[in-house]
Amino acid sequence: MTRLDDLPDFLNALAADVMSRGEWGKVADYIPELARVDPAQFAISVALADGRLISAGQSRTRFSIQSISKVYALACVLSRFGDSLWNRVGREPSGDRFDSILLLEQEHGRPRNPFINAGALVTTDVLLAGRAPKEALSEILQFIRDGAGDDDIHIDASVAASEKATGFRNVALANYLRSFDNLRETPDRVLGTYFHQCAIEMTTEQLALSGRCLAGLPDAPMLLSEVRRRRIAALMMTCGHYDGSGDFAFRTGLPGKSGVGGGILLVVPGRASVGIWSPGLNAWGNSMVGTEAAERLARFTGWSVFG
Ligand code: GLN
């Protein structure tokens, strides 16, 4: 019996353990709709290279993917415009919070990477490229739906509206970027599109399936070139958990991307794509229990990009 045959039991035991322990972290409260989510929830889904999808916990409950959407927006921009994005956004970890404005002044409006908010706003600006926000949003949604092989993936308009009402930091970032001439569209248009992409909802099953193309699984639809897939995974590893990226890499040895909705997309190149969700966050704004689950899964399976 291979270790993976024990995976269903392992995941069920993991879910039972975190539920019984009841230590959840704090839900994001700066977006009122997210503040209402019950932190005592957990789900994990693993899409394996052999086509199996194995889940435990509330794997059919939809949650707000928030910053995980930045990975898909980046994939769309790279496919559509190639490497020109890197003239406007860097590829270095920032070591600062996801919504920090600090480095932006020192570095003349060029965000450190596409996964901090400032970099994601520039990425969304590039994706808009004179089009209606609806078109850019459909492109991101279509990429996700094609990746998951599931059209039942949508935007929760109430979450987008909730963030629009209180997202003052993002408004500041967008205006600041515009002052450096690093937004072509109006801040309003970019922010509206960005808040909607962050408000995409998925279950962990859908997240795991949509991530198969990023993990390069054999049954994944061909949505990305090999080179792009590797580069996006490298950025997830170095920047995907903001100022907690080093800790996440140390604990899991795997590329991952978090969102303040409590989701984590974990990719195990050639082997698996994993969706994890638990809404309570740690001090870096990453899922507390989700990070722990990723670490325990990596230890159980022996998965690591470091061999
Ligand atoms: N929409 C959120 C924000 O911009 C996304 C942040 C996150 O998930 N880390 O603040």
List the defining traits of the structure above.
single chain, 307 residues, Beta-lactamase, five-stranded antiparallel β-sheet, 14 helices, 48% helix
Describe this structure in words.
There is one protein chain. The protein is of the alpha+beta class and 307 residues long. Strands 2-1-8-7-6 form a five-stranded antiparallel β-sheet, with helices on both faces. Strands 3-5-4 form a three-stranded antiparallel β-sheet. The mean pLDDT is 97. The protein has two domains: 165 residues, 3-Layer(aba) Sandwich (Beta-lactamase), CATH 3.40.710; 132 residues, DD-peptidase/beta-lactamase superfamily (Beta-lactamase), CATH 3.40.710.10. It is 48% helix and 11% strand. The two termini are 22 Å apart. It binds glutamine (GLN). The site of glutamine (GLN) has 11 residues, from loops.
Strand and helix map with partners:
Elements (H helix, E strand, L loop, with lengths): L6 H15 L10 H4 L7 E6 L4 E5 L5 E2 L4 H13 L20 H5 L10 H12 L4 H16 L5 E2 L1 H10 L1 H12 L7 H12 L1 E3 L1 H7 L1 H4 L10 H14 L5 H8 L3 E3 L4 E6 L3 E6 L10 H14 L6
Antiparallel strand pairs: 1-2, 1-8, 3-5, 4-5, 6-7, 7-8
Helix pairs in contact: 1-14, 3-5, 3-6, 3-12, 5-8, 5-9, 6-9, 6-10, 7-9, 8-9, 12-13
This protein binds glutamine (GLN).
